[in-house]
Design brief:
By secondary structure, this protein is α/β, with parallel strands linked by helices. It has two domains: about 5-105, Rhodanese-like domain (Oxidized Rhodanese, domain 1); about 115-225, CBS-domain (Roll), CATH 3.10.580.10. The chain is built from eight helices and eleven strands. A five-stranded parallel sheet has the order 1-5-4-2-3, with helices on both faces. Strands 6-7-8-9 form a four-stranded mixed sheet. The protein is elongated and about 70 Å long.
């Protein structure tokens, strides 16, 4: 049988319907961090005996690290040969889950990340908001900019700075004065990775988005813990 490759929304739907979640990475990686409720069967140990812990009458979702890791598609195919008829490969894997700032379990689950440190206090607006309204919001903000988002899915479209708004006609739409494509980071980045990123950048505030570009929050440079 063919194995279905699925993305996060389908993973969440199937889990809500009682699907089983299996991580196939090595044991130490599972113990450090894994998706909530996932069981562990390393790819190297995947055989007729190790899968006895799984229910054959329920969907099975397998995952590994990310889309470049081939362990989950190999494990999914092996499960199919072992007689499982509803097998799904979450190819984007653990990185995708964590990059959406979703909860995890394991010995490293409580460690701070960009997602856990991010704040939701930045001013946001739409393409069509007038400069005067957005400037008024920035006046009450700790940041000298507003983030321009699409309506509904909150995808980051641009950033507009106070200086651009102050020099624009009050009725000008934000779209005409925004900066397109501001740099972003993902929620799964650890504190060490954040420090390395900041060492290469002069940015005062990092913007945290999902892999789909939706805003999760902002992270001021001074909010990243310094080494002790």
């Amino acid at each position: 049988m063919s194995v279905a490759t699925i993305e996060l929304p389908e993973v969440q739907r199937l889990l809500g319907e009682g699907a089983q979640l299996v991580e196939v990475l090595p044991r130490e990686e599972y113990e450090e961090l894994h998706l909530p409720g996932a069981v562990h069967i390393a790819l190297k140990l995947l055989d007729a005996d190790s899968v006895r812990q799984l229910h054959r009458d329920r969907d099975v979702i397998v995952y590994c690290w990310d889309a470049l890791c081939d362990m989950s598609p190999r494990a999914a195919s092996r499960l199919a040969t072992l007689g499982f008829t509803a097998v799904h490969d979450y190819a984007a894997g653990k990185v995708d889950w964590l990059a959406h700032a979703l909860p995890a379990e394991g010995t490293h689950a409580a460690r701070p990340t960009a997602g856990s440190l991010a704040r939701d206090d930045a001013v946001t607006c739409s393409l069509h908001d007038p400069a005067r309204d957005v400037l008024r919001g920035i006046d009450n903000s700790r940041y000298g900019f507003a983030l321009v988002l699409s309506v509904g899915d909150r995808v980051l479209l641009g950033r507009v700075r106070r200086s651009a708004l102050e020099s624009a006609d009050p009725g000008t739409r934000v779209e005409s004065v925004m900066e397109a494509g501001p740099s972003t980071i993902r929620a799964h980045l650890t504190v060490d990775a954040l420090r390395q990123h900041l060492a290469r950048s002069d940015a005062r505030t990092l913007i945290v988005t999902t892999p789909g570009g939706s805003l999760l929050g902002v992270l001021p440079r001074d909010a990243v813990p310094t080494p002790t």
